[in-house]
Every structure is written in structure tokens, then in C-alpha cells.
Write a structure and sequence with these properties.
The structure is a homodimer. By secondary structure, chain A is of the alpha+beta class. Chain A has helices at about 75-85, 135-140, 150-155, 185-190; strands at about 5-15, 25, 30-35, 35, 45-50, 60-65, 70-75, 100, 115, 120-130, 160-165, 170, 175-180. Chain A is about 20% helix and about 30% strand.
């Protein structure tokens, strides 16, 4: 099928097994079930709400886990790298699970956009990843001489997306991804 | 908290216990957990994909259940009722779980909008309910002399929304609901 709204390629897949560190590590394959990436710190059907949901729920409320998988793009990493004048910027330092290539503006995908992978995996975009300062610590260790104070500013809206699992499957580098925008809302916006 | 993007009132709550009929029935209380409305035909963490997902998955594929709860509004029911020249149009005939009042355009809520109820229940809008012809059969039984051929046309974009459960709780009529639009995408759309 080539009737999608865009196509991506999976460059690297990564998991973050340490619950106390955002840093992820490249792996050969991600096992993804309805709870997310098996063995990853973000795995689970539910999770405690954090500061991002402070407007909606008391902190620590058990809510459905909608940030099961995080994705970043080669294109947006390059933008942030150049803005910070770094020699490189790696997806593991941002705690990403999936590095993709092929879309100029991954972070602009709307909530509800579907990412359908070669092998059957189906993810649903749950929104942009809100940049926090945690990656700055990981970056400082490798770039002690650079100012990283602009990270949150430059990464805002270019930090990739978080996604939930609609259809479980394995995921590995080299897979292709078809992107589908939510259909009926687009139709309604045009038609009314 | 009154910092929401809109407020609603729950008029009636309903459950559809018969897996072979879309018709729901008013109940005193809905028990809602992470699988949806306990005892309802749409209950479950997963469900087989249907014709609405034919573009994305082979029919019958086990996918995450994103249509756990369906909501319709007094305002949109009234629009469809008037367009069809019916004496009344009931939420149970449309298989709805929740009838709300207070928003002109419930069906226009974007995917990702949150509905937060008095007692802690949190739902996430998963999109508009795509009208099908099933309610026509229920309506025909009560209105044998009326033409109902316009149902799908008039109900298109006014059929209410489907939602998934973010935070489980009980739900009953009289509850108030605060509506929150997805925040960061709105910010991004303005700022870039």
C-alpha cells in the first residue's frame, strides 16, 4: 500500500532499561506488546502521572500509559545539534526508542496519527515529547566545554513524539513506516 | 478548577450489554476501568479491527480498543432529530454510553482532548464516531412511517465521539465534566 501520508525508515532502535536514567541503548530488536517496549523504563499499561499532567490529575495518579514509545528523527536531531553547535547529538542521549529518517517535521504529527511498520507494528501518536532538562546532564558529560543552556529552547517542538501501541509486534532497524494522518477530523475540518 | 476549555454536564449514562445489538439502556452508574465500561459490548483492552480500520489493518486484527466509551450530546441529537423530522431521538437508539449537555459541537473535539469528570474519571477523545446504518434499524421500529434515509448524512460529524479511558472511575448522571484541548500542539501551531 502506498496510499499513506508519508514514509519513514527506521535507522536505530533503542531501549532504556535503567529506571533511574533517561539514557537508552541501541539494541537489535524491540519486543513491543500492549504495554510498550518490553524491558524499557517506560513499559506499562499504566503509569503514575507526572508534572506534564499536573493540570489534569494529582501527581502520582495511576493513568493509562500514553508515552510507551518515544521517537526522534534524524532531521530534527540535526537541527538541534546545529543550533547547539555540537559535533553530534545521539538518540540514546535523549532516551529515544526509535530513530527515524524521512520526515522534515516528525514533531508536528498530530495526536492520532498512525505509524504502521513493515512487520505489522502499529503505533498511535500521542503528542510531542515535551523537552525537559534531563538530556542536558547526559550531554554535559560528553561536551563539558559547550554551553547547553539552549537545549530546551531549541528542542521545543523538535523533540520528537511519544506514541502508544495499537498493534503489538517486533521492531528493528531497516523497517519502513507508513504515516497516516487522522482521517475523519481532516474531512470534517474541510467540510463544515 | 475552572481553567478548562469547556464544561459539560452528564445527563444520562447507558450500557449496551447485548453483543448483538447496538442499543444501550440507561443505568444508574457506569463502572469504568482500563478496559472501558464493565459489562458493555465494547468492553476490552483489545478488540478486532473492523471496516473503519480497513486502511490500516487486515479485518479482525487484534488492536488496542480506542472506542471504549461513546458520548453524544443533547445539542447534536437535537440537530439530527430536527433534520429527520422525528418527534424524538434517544441516546440508547444510537448505542451511546454517555449523553452530555453544554457543548454546541461535541463531535468537533480533536483527538487527544481530555474529558475530566467530577469523580476523577478521565477520558481521552479518540475521534468522531463514524455514523453507520445500524441505528436506522432501531429507529425504524419506532418510526415506521418516517423516511430515515438521511440518517447517515445528517449524523455525519454530529454522531458524537468515542473515547478511551485514561483514569478509571465510576460515572453517573449529574456529574460535571471539564474539557481540555490538547495543549502543546495548539502552542506549536501558533508558534511556528
Amino acid at each position: 500500500m502506498s496510499d499513506s501520508d508519508g514514509e519513514l525508515e527506521v535507522v536505530t532502535v533503542l531501549a532504556a532499561p535503567d529506571p533511574d536514567s533517561i539514557v537508552s541503548r541501541p539494541v537489535a530488536v524491540l519486543e513491543i506488546d500492549l504495554g510498550g517496549v518490553v524491558g524499557d523504563r517506560h513499559y506499562g499499561l499504566q503509569r503514575p502521572s507526572d508534572s506534564r499532567q499536573a493540570r489534569y490529575y494529582p501527581r502520582g495518579t495511576s493513568i493509562r500509559n500514553r508515552r510507551q514509545v518515544s521517537l526522534v528523527s534524524v532531521e530534527e536531531l540535526e537541527f538541534v545539534r546545529a543550533a547547539l553547535d555540537l559535533p553530534d547529538l545521539r538518540p540514546d542521549e535523549l532516551g529515544a526508542n526509535v530513530l527515524v529518517r524521512g520526515l522534515e517535521d516528525l514533531s508536528a504529527l498530530p495526536i492520532g496519527a498512525r505509524l504502521l511498520f513493515d512487520n505489522g507494528l502499529g503505533l498511535v501518536c500521542e503528542g510531542v515529547n515535551q523537552p525537559c532538562r534531563l538530556p542536558v546532564e547526559a550531554l554535559k558529560a560528553r561536551h563539558p566545554d559547550r554551553s547547553l543552556s539552549g537545549f530546551v529552547k531549541y528542542a521545543f517542538g523538535r523533540r520528537g513524539i511519544v506514541a502508544s501501541v495499537e498493534r503489538p509486534a517486533r521492531l528493528q532497524s531497516g523497517d519502513h513506516v507508513r504515516v497516516f494522518l487522522p482521517e475523519l477530523h481532516a474531512t470534517l475540518a474541510e467540510g463544515r
